[in-house]
Amino acid sequence: MRILVANVNTTQSMTDSIAASARSIAAPGTEIVGITPRFGADSCEGNFESYLAAIAVMDAVTSYPEPFDAVVQAGYGEHGREGLQELLDVPVVDITEAAASTAMFLGHKYSVVTTLDRTVPLIEDRLKLAGLDARCASVRASGMAVLELEEEPERAVEAIIDQAMLAVSQDKAEVIVLGCGGMAGLDEHIRQRAGVPVVDGVASAVAIAESLVRMRLSTSKVRTYAAPRPKTVIGWPLNSTGVPAAL
């Protein structure tokens, strides 16, 4: 089984970290391939960057030259999952939805701890769109930018832990969800300090993707995520004809 794990930003070191986290949870025999978009922002922390990332990830995934069995979109609260589902016949799992749905198996309410405050509304909107908001106690910002997770990891971890503990004590969360792909691999350290289950979206998405492949299940194509109708698409980045390679 081969799973593509698509970073939503262009920072290669973050792709490498996300892929390493994915490999640590993947079952024997599962190949994890980390993908970095060829264009876009070096971090995604707003709507402009998120919409740009959606196009960039579709470009990167549909340009991948070898067969694959599933795709994980490793951007928390980002746009684009729906487009990938239209373009592909294999399962597409977004870490936002994977983490939230996993958290609901572990406690009554969960809280998300993310990066900057400006990303909170994006995450709230994605959870609401997915129907996963009813059991979300809160979405809290650590105040750390995405790139600071790599540049100042110790300070980032402390900021995340501070907000996680507030979510438990003040918001009555029983589970913490890490609200950024760049936080992959931090779950165990934060769990020890916060005293509650901590869900890493990358790990959750990989486990769900593997399960869907093993059960031979994929996206329904009868209506919402039917393949795009063939038409002229001017400026599509994949090739000179303007027609996506997947069509």
UniProtKB/TrEMBL annotation:
This is Aspartate/glutamate racemase family protein. Gene3D superfamilies: 3.40.50.12500. It comes from the Bacteria. Belongs to the HyuE racemase family. It comes from Pseudarthrobacter quantipunctorum.
